[in-house]
Amino acid sequence: MGREEAAEFPELADDPAWYPREDELSRVPFRGAASAGAVVDATVDVVAGLAGIAAVAGVLGMLHPLLLALLVVAALPAGWAEVLVARMGYATVHLLSTSLRRKWILNELMADRATAPEVRSYGMSRFLLAQFSAVTRVEQGERLRLARRQTGVRVLGEAFAALSAGVVYLTLGLLLVFGVVPLAEAATAALAVGVGRTTLIALMRTVSRCYEEGLYFTDYLDFCTLARERTPEPSPGAASPAFDTITLRDVSFSYPASDVAVLDRVNMEIKRGEIIALVGENGSGKSTPARILAGLYRPDRDEVRWDDVPTTEIDPAALRARIGYVPQDYTRWPLTARQNIEAGDARGDAPVIAAGAAAGLGPVVDRLPHGYDTLLDRRFAGGQELSGGQWQRIAIARGLYRDVPLLIFDEPTAAMDARAEHALFADVSARVLGRGAPAGEEDRQPRTVVLITHRMTSAQLADRIYVLDRGRIVEHGAHAGLMAQDGLYAELFRLHLAVYAAPSGAVEESGAAAG
């Protein structure tokens, strides 16, 4: 973001340490990748220009070598100006990258269907338009400054080029006066100088264009190199199809450019076939271990082990292929219900129906016009829309569909009420872990479940509960034992019951009294 924009709207200032590659991600695909073709076209034009210059150079060299040298000198100011103009344009594109990205974000916020209800209900259109206008003013100011600077450089370059051309013609006249060059040859030389100067200036501009596009293409190549460096190499090791124990040993984690640890020396043990619950207040760091277990984050120190194998020695793709991760911010894919569940891994009807049943999707799918083959996007003909809770069941079914030994549920049921969430996870416990399931409905190989939730009643289903507070595990054990300790877990559990388990009349009376 430019200085003026940051001063006018300081709350919008980017943190370059937090988004170190956001500008490259927004700039490289559009300008960098597209510059490859422009570089090729400009290179062809340069070769053609060099051929024309070679012809003129041959004529002037035969007439007098001094004329050829002076012609090159005459074209240098214009060439210098064009290269400098190209550098200015490239620097301005870099300077405006953040502003252009912010304009795109604001445009999406103003036009996206998901944000439309709040934009209308809160009357935010004027505010967002003001933000958009502020960014546009900064961009316009920078582009006007660029145009003025480029114009000044070009005028200066043309002035020196004209002066240099005058020197060339003066030299040619002196050669003619002193008889060094005959009149006929002088006329030919004058014509060749004119043609050569025009051709050489055009060549300089083409070289400048090639140079500018090459700068953007170099950005693209540098970004590709960075991507290769950041892409983990396939590891000779591989995660086993199952495991006996997953352990986190003194695991710490902090976000880039932050001194505050989100996790601080966390130790955790997950045994095969267990339900593990991670609970805590908002901001306690309970979702971070889930993302580390899922292979999305790498801890700052120490390690995670599948049995005796550190995950750093396991191919990340092989590790993720053995994990079903259901995030809180799941994706609503504009695909059919079946494709939303399969996520690109089609294995027939039976697994889809089983995952849907375990996630409680049966009644939802029965009301869809084409069942699991119904398109879930109203933007397309025949598309249907689901409620937030129904979409959450789709996301859970997507995780259950994967034939993996470890399932991670990172608060995916926020749109459900407490009873619906508890019933859902009780059903998942029965069907997936084979605990109390009807005959024939239990999973043949019970899987391990890690559940992150702020609803304490769902945590009762767990074999072991880890309570996090400010990035540290402060308590762990089974529900009964933690209640007996009368610590943070017991406090959170009682508060939860006071909100969700109180009779409706009592809640209303409490609310009236508070009012």
Could you characterize the architecture of this molecule?
This is ATP-binding cassette subfamily B protein/ATP-binding cassette subfamily C protein. InterPro entries: AAA+_ATPase, ABC1_TM_sf, ABC_transporter-like_ATP-bd, ABC_transporter-like_CS, P-loop_NTPase, Type_1_exporter. The chain crosses the membrane at residues 36-60, 155-180. Helices cover 57% and strands 11% of the residues. With 515 residues, the chain is α/β, with parallel strands linked by helices. A hairpin with a 2-residue loop joins strand 9 and strand 10. The chain has a 6-stranded mixed sheet, sandwiched between helices. Residues 1-20, 437-443 and 503-515 have low confidence and may be disordered. The chain has 2 domains: 3-230, no CATH class; 240-322 and 454-515, Rossmann fold.
Query: What's the N-to-C terminus distance?
Result: 45 Å
User: Judging from the principal axes of the Cα atoms, what is the shape?
Assistant: elongated
> What is the residue-averaged pLDDT?
77
- The figure for the number of domains is 2
Number of helices: 19
**Radius of gyration, in angstroms, nearest whole number:** 34 Å
- Report the sheet with the most strands, covering strand number, pairing sense and barrel closure: 6 strands, mixed
Helical fraction: 55-70%
Across the major sheet, the strand order is 6-7-8-3-9-10
Number of extended strands: 10
Taken in chain order, the helices and strands follow as HHHHHHHHEEEHEEHEHHHHEHEHEEHHH
Uncertain regions: pLDDT < 50 for 5+ in a row? 1-20, 437-443, 503-515
Question: Structural class from helices and strands?
Answer: alpha/beta
Q: Into which percentage range does the β-strand content fall?
A: 5-15%
